[in-house]
Amino acid sequence: MTTTGPRAKRSRKPAVVAPPEARIEKAGTFPGPDRDPHPKAGRNGWLKVIEDLDPVTHHQDILRITAGYEFPWDYQRSLEFALFRTYCVPTISELLARTGEFEHRPQKRYDDTSLLMAELIEHGYDAERGRESLRNINRMHGKYSIDNDDMLYVLSTFVYDPLDWIDNYGWRRLHPKERLASFYFYRQVGIRMGIKDIPESFQEFHRFKLEYERKMFDYSDDNHAIGTYTLGLFKSWYPKALGPGVEKVVYSLIDDRMARAFGFPKGSPRMRAMSEGALRMRSALVRRLPKRRVSVSGGNASNRTYPGYPLGYRPRDLGV
Questions:
Q1: What DSSP line would sit under 30-85, residue for residue?
Q2: What's the rounded Cα separation, in Å, for the pair 138 and 140?
Q3: What confidence score (pLDDT) does residue 182 get?
Q4: What is the DSSP code (8-state) at residue 17?
Q5: Within 10 A of 76 (CB to CB), how many other CB atoms are there?
Q6: Distance separating alpha carbons of residues 278 and 28, to the nearest angstrom
């Protein structure tokens, strides 16, 4: 939920607003990810590595393997839809509309968020680049007064939406340790962001997410505006002639609750079947490829806002 923009004045209130009785937790100390891990033999060589790791203490290793080696494309697409999902909450979209970033610089706003989160996964949240990324995230959030539950909800989408996407469209099912590692990783990130009352179990946090969506997803004009700007961003990544088709694919992949909250038309069941079929065909192809030996979670040389990233860039350069 990274927000930037010169139009908003710095609030004197706390960046993350929580009730007085909210639980403030101390960040834990865990080993950073191995930057040069070695897979075992076979197509499932990385899965065999994960099976030998503890998701509580080595969640940074596991998530880096999942996002950087096993499912980099799926992980990126799932985070795009996870962020899209958060704009169904009127209090979140109202803040984003107020910054003007989505109206004027949607690509930069997207790239800032994507790269900062990728830095955390690639280097670890306590490594030099990870700490710098967190300082940048907290600096940008510090310009605004943000409800703690809204921050907690955005954090929950980073945990669970990639899991759902990969289980539906990935080339293999996730191992239970990968699911737990996602929770423990983002829980520690959330603590370092100053988010209060983060649930202590995978199941409890998932219940919070589902209940929050049930209560808070509702139509607003800000939802519609931010959703429309984001849809326009998605379309801008493809030739103009494909724009109407991209729009139909996006409508088909969001659920009915999201469509209502955005004021978007309900997706076509036929288009949904075609979209999901294409995603599963891609996964069938990836399943036949050799395992990846170089992580791609920490960089994007073709980035539109920061060409060649990370060469020549630091996390502090993002969001400026």
A1: -PPPPSS----SSTTHHHHHHHTS-TTTSHHHHHHIIIIII-HHHHHHHHHHHHHH
A2: 5
A3: 98
A4: E
A5: 17
A6: 41
139: tokens are 């600096």
The SS3 call for residue 121 is: helix
- What is the predicted pLDDT for the residue at 2? 43
Task: List, in order, residues 6 or more apart from 93 with CB less than 8 Å away.
Answer: 87, 220, 222, 223, 225, 226, 227
- Could you give the dihedral angle defined by the CA atoms of residues 233, 170, 295 and 36, in that order, rounded to the nearest 10 degrees? 150
pLDDT at 15: 61
Q: Write out residues in the chain with pLDDT < 50, as ranges.
A: 1-13
Q: Which two tokens stand for residue 173?
A: 């099912």
CA distance 311 to 301: 8
Query: What's the CA dihedral at 70, 74, 78, 80 to 10 degrees?
Result: 120
- What is the chain's mean pLDDT, rounded? 92
> Both tokens of residue 159?
């945990």
Question: How far is the C-alpha of 135 from the C-alpha of 283, rounded, in Å?
Answer: 36
**Helix orientation angle between 72-86 and 148-169, rounded to the nearest 10 degrees:** 140
Tokens found for residue 57:
């203490």
Give the pLDDT confidence score for residue 21 in this predicted structure.
66
The dihedrals phi and psi of 147, each to the nearest 5 degrees, come to -65, 135
